[in-house]
Amino acid sequence: MIFKNFKYFFLFTASLLIIKGHLKKNQLSKKKIHLIHADLIQKKGVIDPDALFLSGNVSLEHQGNTLDCDSAVYYKKSNEFKGFGQVKMHSKDRRFTGEKLEYDGNSGIAKVYEKPVAYEKETEIRADTLYHDSHTKISRAIGNTLLTDKNTRVSSSLLEYNGNNEQAYYTTGGTVYDEKNILKSLKGVYFSREKKAEFLSNVDIENQEYKILSHRAHYYTEEKKVDFLGPTTIRKKSKPQEYIYTEKGSYYTQDKKAYGQKAPSLHYNGKILKGDSLYFDQISGFGSATGNVCLEDPEKKRFLTGGYGEIYQPSDSAILLKKPLAIKLVKNDSIFIHADTLIAVKTIESTNVIRAYHFAKMYKTDMQAKCDSIVYHEDQGQMSFYKDPVFWRENQQIQGDMIHAYIHPEKEVLDSMQIIGNAFASSKVDSLNEKEFNQLKGRFMSAYFKNSQIDSIEAKGNAQSLFFAEEEDQRNKVKRRIGINRSNCGLILAWFTPEQKIRKVSCRQKAHSILSPEVKFPEQEHFLSHFQWRDKERPIKKEEIFIPDILSYRKEQEKSKKL
Fold it and tell me: Which end of the chain is less packed: N or C, by CB atoms within 10 Å?
């Protein structure tokens, strides 16, 4: 460091000599230093015949600069001056003090050393050595420099201050201090008039709670605001894993509010919030993101996306709007949930819940659903569908007032379902036949799955069933239609084959069951009351869950095909 400072000192001194010689050669400054007063004036020819030795209340003047000191040596011929003890050099806008001063009246350059201090309006500069050019009004401070401006201090080994625009520069590393923050950078500019600092590289900002690293930043000392112009992290000291990243943005160090405008992300509670722009209040824990929002939860393998999102860190909750989408990664597949509004919360029992409100849809490769609202308890694997829910799986459809689906938490496959109120299950007898459906209904219904296929269904309360019965020829194993079976019971149990065909139906509690040939059943009686086949409302790919009215969409698609 000593060598580096000496190198800069040498270069600066050499430049001063060149400037001085140039000025003398061209006679740019011909005005002489004027002696105003000294208690004692002496000539000491033995020591220096051209010098005047002054002592006691010495005062000189040169081009608007007044030079005061206890004693001095005045070189009238060469137009130079050396002052000692209680040295003061002052003009209309600035003044310098120290214990020693060297002044060249030809170049207008002053050197103040031994406890030198410069005062420029509200700015004070201290250093080991101060140089000032009265022509350019530029001061250079060398060694242990400290600029003080109200509640702001700037320190560096080398500092240049321009009195014309009231700006200070450093290129060898500097630090800016205010009441609560320490701001460091390799290169920087301090604007005394604007109360602003520009940090040009390797920025390090620190206070008691946070540490900020940035490529480039501007700091406004009165607003306590930092503007970032490059890759930046704002990291919490007590929890280093919680931080804000942005490549452009602002941060209010006193209010603890951050704004990200380019590639911003908020890392908290093991989650990551991203968007085109981002805001976060570190005191309240409230944050928001706008445009291409994504809230990642790697531990839960869950992603929430949308056009706008808000998070509240203390309760670990979030809300997503503007085409929000919840994506839950499961084995070899993903669950997609969309609604007008998505809310993710952590309950008192520390369970994670996703709530999808109004016009909700769910898509998974092997199952889909539509309703007004969906509540998904991730930890228990329970997904509940409310208000006119309809659930599809392969060629099967399930409806009711409320549906609860249970996904096995380890296997991550559908395990069972409960349908509460007006339960109705139907499936196509043949995928190509649009008029034949096996049907089962009741007030309540439970469905059980095995290897992701329906294994059995139990219907309770005014249970009814209608299915197209088949019989297998034992010799050639060929199945033939034998009629339609219709049952009315208090409880109906139905078992299914691996091919999802009805294998057996058991009617219990006030059972009444009849098997009749199809010809005895008019076509309008092939359906139980309140039967609806709503396959046209079904999203057949994940992109379709964003279409508000899938039924109208299907009709338009069919019409366009005919044209």
Answer: C
Residue 29 identity (one-letter amino acid): S
State the DSSP H helix or E strand holding residue 12, giving kind and residue range, or none if neither: helix 2-26
Amino acid 414 reads L
Q: N- to C-terminal Cα distance for the chain?
A: 83
**Count of H-run helices and E-run strands, the chain:** 2, 46
389-532 in CATH: which number?
Answer: 2.60.450
Query: Under DSSP, is residue 183 helix (H, G, I), strand (E, B) or coil?
Result: strand
Interval 275-295: pLDDT, tens: 999 999 999 999 999 999 999
Which residue matches tokens 């809300």? Answer: 319
For residue range 133-158, what is the model confidence (pLDDT) as tens digits?
988 999 999 999 999 998 899 999 99
Query: How many CA atoms lie less than 13 Å away from 187 in the CB half-sphere?
Result: 5
Contact (Cβ atoms closer than 8 angstroms) between residue 127 and residue 147: no
For the chain, give every domain's residue range. 2-271, 272-386+539-563, 389-532
Mean pLDDT by 10-residue block, N- to C-terminus, for the chain (563 residues)?
Answer: 42 45 44 92 78 93 92 92 93 90 93 93 93 92 93 93 93 91 94 92 92 95 93 93 95 94 95 97 96 94 95 94 94 93 85 92 94 93 95 92 91 91 91 84 93 88 88 76 87 85 80 83 85 92 87 74 67
**What is this structure's pTM?**
0.81
Residues 6 or more apart whose CB falls under 8 angstroms from that of 561 comprise none
For 372-385, the pLDDT digits (tens) are 999 999 888 899 99
2-271: what CATH class?
mainly beta
CATH architecture of 272-386+539-563: Sandwich (2.60)
Which residue type is seen at 263? A
Helices (H), 194-348: none
Question: Distance between CA 263 and CA 245 in Å, rounded?
Answer: 8
Burial of 39 (0-12, 13-18, 19+ CB in 10 A): exposed
Asked whether this chain's domains 2-271 and 272-386+539-563 adopt the same fold, the reply is yes
